[in-house]
Amino acid sequence: MRLLYTRYDPLLPFGLIDVVERLIDMITSTAVPVSTKVRELTNFAIYVLKVARKRELRSLNFIVSGNPNEWLVKHTYNIVGVIAQLMCEMRFPFIEAQKVIRTAVLHDLGHIPLRNPLPLSDTPEGGDKYRLHVVLGYRLCRELDLSIDECDAILTHHENFDGSGFMSRRGKSIPFYARLMRIADDVEKLVTDQGVSTFNAMKHFMLYSSKLYDPDMVRWMIATFGPIPTGTTVRIRGEEGTVEGAKDGRLAVIHLGTHNVEYIPFEKLRNMIQPGEME
User: What per-residue confidence (pLDDT) applies to 123?
Assistant: First the structure.
């Protein structure tokens, strides 16, 4: 397992990766009662949201990348972190936020019975086997007797806003949780699997707004993490610094030196960006 950023910002305790792994093992075990699975899943969601709510900084600096054998645990951990920050920044009702976190944990567990070593893309190499994972994930959710919102989101989390996804659902007919999961999935995929800079990830979301993503989700993502996202190099009064995250949906948090931190409004920050950072 490796950190994607030199300056790791532990939004979630790093040891929580092991908790995610144990939680996945328990949920997919046939020996554990359903009631126990649901209780532990809900307790996990409550804990993650309480941790995220205590934080003022919204950042992608917690994201980790793992080897192919670890991809599902790593992916689940990363998506949970993105979703938790979105939920807290937008002040989503706590009970509903728990459901979204539970959905984030379960959304790709349909890969396990398929024995997919990697998250195969929707290509000839992936094909029907890749598409089947949403159906198996939906069945798992139904077995846990979770809400229809959670189960439908797992079934449709690969739908595109323009109707070009697996099942040709489009627009607001795609469940809300699924539209949220769609963009959170791609945050992680872009900055880990494809090595895209966080700035270009935000450009990607704006470019494909109303095509792949719900425009409301794109605005939500940018309001939470900032239009000038984590990792961008800036120069303030001749001193070089790094964007560490966003605060209050309008301020970029800039790390200068060892302990010096400044808060700069988004609209003023663009003139401070170093050449090449926006490429």
Answer: 47
Write out pLDDT tens, residues 22-81.
999 999 999 999 999 999 999 999 999 998 888 777 777 677 776 666 788 888 999 999
Provide the whole-model pTM: 0.80
SS (H, E, C) the chain: CEECCCCCCCCCCCCHHHHHHHHHHHHCCCCCCHHHHHHHHHHHHHHHHHHHHCCCCECCCCCEECCHHHHHHHHHHHHHHHHHHHHHHCCCCHHHHHHHHHHHHHCCCCHHHHCCCCCCCCCCCCHHHHHHHHHHHHHHHHHCCCCHHHHHHHHCCCCCCCCCCCCCCCHHHCCHHHHHHHHHHHHHHHHHHCCCCHHHHHHHHHHCECCCECHHHHHHHHHHHCCCCCCCEEEECCEEEEEEEEECCCEEEEEECCCEEEEEEHHHHHHHECCCCCC
CA distance 16 to 66: 15
- How far is CA 83 from its chain centroid? 5
- Phi/psi of residue 237, nearest 5 degrees: 50, 40
Q: What whole-number distance in Å separates Cα of residue 221 and Cα of residue 106?
A: 21
User: Do residues 254 and 263 touch, judged by C-beta distance below 8 A?
Assistant: yes
Over residues 191-245, the pLDDT tens digits come to 777 777 666 777 788 889 999 999 999 888 888 877 666 667 777 777 788 777 7
